Amino acid sequence: MDDRPRGVVVTGAAGDLGRTLCRSFLGDGFAVYAADVAPIDAVPGLVPVRVDVTDRGQVLGLADLASRDTRLEAWVNAAGIFVACAVDDADEASWHRILSVNLTGTYHGCAAALATLARAGGGRIVNVGSISGQLGGTGVHPAYGASKAGVHALTKTYALEGARHGVLCNAVAPGLLEGSMSREFGDRRRDRLAQANPMRRLGRMDEIAGVVRFLAGPSNTYVNGAIVPVNGGAYMPS
Fold it and tell me: Which residues of the chain have pLDDT under 50?
């Protein structure tokens, strides 16, 4: 019997959603590998790992580390960057950087997770997409929506491949959330966006984390390849 602790990898662990996810997994007794380029304080059960998700070798090394010391069960690709700007002001350097982190970084994570979880007999991958990947949008660099649409398509590809290995792959597509990203819009625009939502408010990080935790957990036995909209009804894909 494998007596190692249950393990999970969370990339983007220094961000608002990443920190919320880490706390949630820790609360359930997981050993959490908290990966980010930003520093993260170590706490009992949490292993900070400095990882640039655009570097495939670093991501593969993270997978090796987590699977060596734990029974790795889940991998959450939450690393991402966001640039608020007028579409006409969008610059090429930001285009490449956003795609590199949000899309290529998720690709590296999916590849590392699938190989590692398949060897272990199965597991769960959850990617963080966005309503911007479903609807586009203004006031944000066009690379953001493009990268998240790519994350959604990537999720379906790894869902198809992973199913035969017992690895389910899904994504969440949040609307605008309370936190550092929404603050980039400024108070007036953020308030207008909140009031435009059917629920008249922004989402909370814990509301997204709850859906991620279901998709990443053992109670999810048949949801695969889904892009789950968590947006208060702002977009209801059929």
Answer: none
